[in-house]
Amino acid sequence: MKSFILAVAAMIAISAAAAGVLNAGFQKTADQAYATQGARVGTH
Fold it and tell me: Between 36 and 21, whose confidence is greater?
């Protein structure tokens, strides 16, 4: 039972760290991801 609780705690910690990394560096909003010099999304 101790090993199961330890595994769940480790999984939660790894998930939280991965979510932080993805949100910080890899995921962008649609405006940031698809806007280029020729076309700006959402600005008029």
Answer: 21
